[in-house]
Amino acid sequence: MTSKARKFALLAGLSCLIGACDDYRRTGVAETGVIYCSEGDPATFNPQLDASGTTVDATSYQIYDRLLDIQAESNDLVPALATSWLVKNDGKTYVFQLRKDVAFHQTGYFTPSRNFNADDVIFSIERWRDATHPYHQVGGGSYPYFNSIGLNTLIKDVRRINGYRVEIELHRPDSSFLANLATNFSVILSAEYGDTLLQQGNPEALDSLPIGTGPFKYDQYRKGQYIRFRKHENYWGGEVQLDPLIFSITPRSSLRVAKLLTGECDAIAYPAHSELGILDQRPEIALDEKPGLNVGFWAFNTIKPPFDNPDVRRALALAIDKDTLINAVYFGSAERAKGLLPQTSWAFQGSLRDTSYNPVAARELLDKAGVPRGFQMDIWAMPVERAYNPNARRMAELIQGYLKAVDINVNIVSYEWGTFRRRLREGIHDSVLIGWSADSGDPDNFYRPLLSCSAIFSGTNRANWCNNEYDRLIDQALQYTDFEQRKLFYQLANTIIAQDMPLVPIAHAYRYHAYQSHLHNFQLNPYGGLSFAGVIKQ
Amino acid sequence: MARSNFYQESQFPSPFQQTWMEFKKSHMAMIGLVLFAIFILLLLFAPVLAPYSPDQQDTESLLLQPAWDPRGTFSYLFGTDSLGRDILSRVIYGSRTTLGISILMVLMAMLIGCAIGAFAGMSRGLRASVLNHLLDSIMSLPSLLIAIIIVAILGTGLSNCMWAITLALIPQFIHLTRDMVRTEWHKEYVTAARLDGAGKVRILFDSMLPNMTEKLVVSGTMALSTAILDISALGFLNLGAQAPTTELGAMLSEGLEMAYVAPWTITIPGAAILLMLVAVNLVGDGVRSALRYRLHQ
Amino acid sequence: MMYAYIIRRVNLLVVTLFVLTVASYGLAFLFPGDALMNLSGVVTTDPDQYAELKQKYAFDSNYVYGFFVYLGHILSGDWGISLYSGEPVLEEIARYMPATIELSSYALVLSMLIGVPVGFWAGLRFHRSIDYTIMTGSVIGFSIPVFWLALLLIIVFSLQLGWLPMSGRLSLLFDIPQRTGFILPDILLSDLPNKADALYNAALHMVLPAMSITIVTSAVVVRITRRSVADVMESDYMKAAIARGFSPAQAIMRHGIRNALLPILPQIVMQFTVLLTNAMIVELIFSWPGIGNWLLQAIYLRDYPAITGGMLAVSALVIMVTLSMDMLIRAINPLKRRDVHGTI
Fold first, then answer.
1. CB of A9 within 8 Å of any CB in chain C?
2. Nearest residue of B to residue A398 by CA position?
3. Cβ contact (<8 Å) for B141 and C280?
């Protein structure tokens, strides 16, 4: 065996010397196979249970479908598993007509006996809505997205009208409801699979060995290494062009870019902002850019002294120079954030005032608040890259430099991503560099999960900040469908944030997508979530 | 000082002088020694020699090319890293940390190792047998592997790494001293000293130690090169020196993120480690072959 | 005599492994967190399950008894569950270990193929210009930090020239079922239609990692060989052979080679352990799915059952390799048989 290997290596080396091995990517069978280099392990294969972008990318659009989709260009809702829908006059009752002849995945561990119907919709929604549902507690019983926006308490009832018609009744009108049903998290599971697993006494498999209606079916997963998907032969949306689809898990962004350059990845997640210039120059690599609906920020733990004092938070905000942070961390490919919303949102407030860099004023404020010189604080920096913050560690190091100038010593804390988020929930941090990518175009998707009181418990309000006035304002905004009226409420909310400064918004990063140009039709979704459904490899 | 020589006796160089004369003959060894001296100078005078502080961030010039590149400037000879820190200064301070800590570790390991080794060499019976067994099995594990395991236990960080590597270096000194003591113990000069009534400790320090010095220097340089390699490897693996500490291995690992955009953030610190190791190994080789030559005569 | 020696060696192996298991049992208590969790890898908040675990590891009794219960689990193949992946540790080790052995053995063979002839050459031309040139090269080669070398090779051959892949040991597009764990036999055993392509792809993946290790190791092999050959050349029996009218070439062929090579072997075996450590680092850089990469990930993730398991497995491998090589050397080298106390 050894000699054979050596012969091959020698052969390879020789052919390389004469410059003939540029096609080492050649794989014979796998002309339709695609390798996507992703940034981390999904926490689960069911995005209902986890709001992180990594989970969503790997599952939402690959394995599952939703009732509705948001069209990227126009922000319009378009049919998916629901072919049509109507709102009754009271504004509280929605009726969905479902698509027929939609097949679930057939895999080694499950063979469906029927197609998609109303039971599956009810099963999928009741799982997170109804605390008495047999599956509610499976996988921890926490549904971060739905809980953070309060969708579980908004829905009053989900009724089956007939096999292909479902009615959902709300407690009160909500102008963001349909958009929420189109988010990455509102996926449709198989009720039949759920029942089978319950009989087998293995309900956890619902989230680890997934069954859905999406274009790809789960084949194999090796944690920290790869996820292998095969194509779903009977996909309702037309013939799937790729097979297999592989997520190669590559946490280091420089390594992902390198693997894209050598052709070992066909597409990569979150190219490092520092290396965009190089990717742009390569003719065989396509680089798409879109303004992202996201915000990267520095949140203070407002229940922990001295950060419970708004003066301290304002002082720290004054002590950092955002422009430099944007330059050094995003390499300029981001816009400076003044508030939570990026410019592309319709509720963006152009007149909002931003904090300016003023270390002298910062020190004065700190003195006034009684923060001693040489005070020691922690900054938690995420260990992974996100669109909203490609390098939290470097940002933390820069902030460390700035705070040193106002006599505050910074200790940078970081854990593995899973541990990081678990500890963050415990609320023991002083401050954290993190951010948010929106799941729908609705501004409520920024205001509510990030800073509302209920979001403290669902673990998306990293500042642990609770302000009743603010909660009242964002609730009121949802009562209106007119954009101009809603905008007024959000402006008032902005004023409260600017005064109280539970977090310092830093940047809205552009979203990038880098892939080999032999992939076609590979679109960027502004709301996060990655789809290989229509992608063609040529 | 002129000294009148009454006797026709020619002056014999002392063993140390002989070794030194032999060492001087080898160009490679002298090059190594000069390089090593330069690193020692950097170690001692880093704050004077480095143009900037290693943590000083110049946010105006991030990822600046080295001076020999048309885009570089001479104010940053080796360019800057992704935080705008001067790479030359960081390499100087990094060499200081890497080399300084390595020397410290080797001295500590030598001290402890020789003490245990001397004890083992002079003891007999069960104690020696147990020790030999343990030693044999530990010696068969490479020091870096032991260090990785110890760091896994103690947790990451520079001081834990120091303990780990020191511990991993000790066995070879025990081994050396034990064998030396065993073989020397039966030689005539030791017997003579014993007959004179000298105690064990006295024999060890007065009679045997001078005979061991050169061999200790040889294994000291070998241990030093292992220590440098290990500490920078642990730094590179993010198990050793953490962020604000400047260490060559850790610098390499930081540069990894920019490998393609700024290859100099990898090549320069790596080259510094290489030079340091070459210097140590050349000196070690030189001493060893000089010693071999002298003993052969 | 030989039997006494073998018994002594096996005794040593058993003692060492015993000490290591004691260490790994002790570690579970030294590591942060719950000792029971660190031993078993089972994270549970369910009191019943916890009580069951307590029973299983005999946590109510004293440490000594607890240790022997633990030893029983280790011997029966129950090494706990990885906190990170949730899979049995022993299974994971069995999955990743072959990749490391594969890479290391190729690198070792290559280093000997390169190092021994070059070292021989330098030894025969002892203290002449070619010897100095080779020695300079070898000093540099053996001073290169292997992680830096690997990075340079990637920058040059993968990123700049685009000749060779830089991660993994086979393109993920090939779905090769694991049988032996060694990639090349696995490809041959698979029912893939395009085995040649897969073999070619696997060979390309192997070039850079094997090269990084080989460069460093062969530099050491050169030094060892050169020294040994030079010693043989200076020996009285060689001088005698030449005096008796053999040409130098004849003398070397008749008396030199065997005598020069035999003392090299044990030293090269010593190098295998260093090579293995280098391989562990190189694995991390090339995302090679081997035990080193796996163990380092376990350290980063503070996956204690995996750390102790990995430590045990790697040390056991190293000790067994050195031991078996040592016995082999004794079998072929009569000079070595005399000293029973010899160290590895």
1. yes
2. B83
3. no
What is the distance between the alpha carbons of residues A65 and A181, in angstroms, rounded to a whole number?
11
In the chain, the amino acid numbered B18 is Q
- CB contact under 8 Å between B59 and A327, yes or no, is yes
- The shortest CB-CB distance from C318 to any of B140, B270, B273 is to B140
Whole-model pTM?
0.82
Residue C165 identity (one-letter amino acid): P
Contacts of C296 in chain B (CB under 8 A): 148, 237
Tell which A residues from 321 to 380 touch B, by Cβ distance under 8 Å: 324, 327-328
Apex C69 CA angle, C68 and C75, nearest 5: 85
Q: Which of A442, A482, A347 is nearest to A77 (CA)?
A: A442
- Please tell me the distance from the alpha carbon of residue C336 to that of residue A371, in angstroms, as a whole number: 73
**Using a CB-CB distance cutoff of 8 angstroms, which residues of chain A are in contact with residue C194?**
27-29
* B186 C-beta neighbours (distance < 10 Å), count: 8
CB-based burial label for B74 (10 Å; 0-12, 13-18, 19+): exposed
CA distances from B29 to B107, B279, C136 (A): 22, 8, 11
Q: Would you call B233 and C145 a contact, using CB atoms and an 8 Å cutoff?
A: yes
Structure-block tokens of residue A263: 């052709």
Interface contact B83-A257, CB threshold 8 A: no
Chain A closest CA to C200's CA: distance in Å? Answer: 6
Q: Is there a contact between A2 and C197 if contact means CB atoms under 8 Å apart? A: no
pLDDT in 10s for each residue of chain B, 297 residues: 455 566 666 677 777 788 888 888 888 889 999 999 999 999 999 888 888 888 887 777 777 888 888 887 888 888 888 788 889 999 999 999 999 999 999 999 999 998 888 888 777 666 666 777 677 667 767 788 888 888 877 778 888 889 989 988 988 898 888 888 888 878 888 888 888 888 888 888 877 887 788 888 888 999 999 999 999 999 999 888 876 788 999 999 888 877 778 888 899 999 999 999 999 999 998 888 888 887 776
ipTM exceeds 0.90, yes or no: no
Name chain B contacts of C319, Cβ cutoff 8 Å: 137, 140-141
Say if residues B155 and B209 touch (Cβ distance below 8 Å): no
| Contacting A residues, span 14-33, partner chain C, CB-CB under 8 Å | 16, 21-22, 24-30, 33
Task: Give the 3-state DSSP-derived string for A253-313, with helices as H, strands as E and coil as C.
Answer: HHHHHHHHHCCCCCEECCCCHHHHHHHHHCCCEEEEEEECCEEEEEEECCCCCCCCCHHHH
8 Å CB contact of B140 and C273: yes
Helices in chain B by DSSP H: which ranges? 15-25, 27-49, 87-122, 126-139, 143-154, 158-185, 188-195, 200-202, 209-236, 248-255, 264-296
Q: Which of A137, A223, A414, A422 to mutate against chain C (most C CBs within 10 Å)?
A: A223
User: Nearest Cα to A306, choosing from A202, A385, A377, A381?
Assistant: A377
What is the CB neighbour count within 10 angstroms for residue C306? 28
* 8 A C-beta contact, residue A161 and residue A118: yes
- Is B229 an interface residue toward C (CB < 8 Å)? yes
Class of residue A383 by CB neighbours under 10 A (exposed 0-12, middle 13-18, buried 19+): middle
